[in-house]
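Make up an example, fold above all:
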Amino acid sequence: MRKHTRAGVIFAASLLSVAGLAAPASADGPAGAARNAGPSCTSLSNGSFCVGIIDGGHTVNLVFGKTGGSAVTVKFGYRKGNAKHFSNAFTVKKGDTKTYKFKNQSLGCSTIYGVLAVEGQGDFETPGVHNTGC
């Protein structure tokens, strides 16, 4: 079991690195400027799903790494309040890491939740990240 847990931690760290979410929040300009937020991840039965806010609070960055199971069709999305925004559908197979960016978003001072809509299985959400780009 310890080996499995360690592998999960290593996978999550590499997933975040690929997504560009591994670095701590950093200023995008002079003192007091907007900062990046996240990552916030959720562990799924066959992978991990993460959300982060980058580009000074204007881009929602989503990453899904699939570690097992059969191929699934997913839509990447995010939730701000009661409103959800989704991408087109993608097929994700075991061993794939897929990213999606919603660029130039008007996020305001909101908490953003990553949403992974899996065909036939429903929606899965990450814990929220607070947009500091306001």
In short: The first helix runs from residue 2 to 19. Confidence is low (pLDDT under 50) at residues 1-14, 23-33. The first strand starts at residue 37 and ends at 44.
